Amino acid sequence: MPAPLAIGLVAHDDKKTALVEWIVAHQGFLKDKALFATGTTGGRILEALPDLNLMRLKSGPLGGDQQLGAMIAEGRLDALIFFVDPLSPQPHDVDIKALIRLATLYDIPFACNAATADLIVAGYEATS
Question: Is 65 a catalytic residue?
């Protein structure tokens, strides 16, 4: 039996609610996936859907973004869903840029908003 699809989940503060709403809408797809989320984002997700197979990492500014980046570099993440807030400055912007760089470098599907995340789900559903 192959390992479940592994997906990283992150959202900037002003986008956490939108990510949780997206996850609730796609819980049927996500229920059997291995999910990894940065600390605060993961906590919000688990409040809404406590039965998801989700591992919380550190908070983004405390190393969670880097943990996800390491997972990408090690080939342990299949996709990254990162709801980005383009209008708010982020104090750990260098970590965010490094994470996005790794997703691009290792050529994994990367969504920075709900529309793109929907396309990733549709693509995986079409091939399974």
Answer: yes
User: Residue 1's pLDDT is what?
Assistant: 57
The residues that bridge with 7 in the sheet, in sequence order, are 35, 79
**Strands across the sheet with 79-83, in order?**
54-56, 34-37, 6-11, 79-83, 110-111
- Of 40-44, 69-73, 96-100, the one with minimum mean pLDDT is 96-100
* Residue 7 near residue 34 (C-beta atoms within 8 A): yes
Contact in structure between 110 and 119 (CB atoms under 8 Å): no
Q: Which tokens in the block code for residue 31?
A: 């229920």
Task: Write down the catalytic residue from 13, 14, 51, 65.
Answer: 65
CA atoms within 13 A on the CB side of 38: 27
pLDDT at 44 over 70: yes
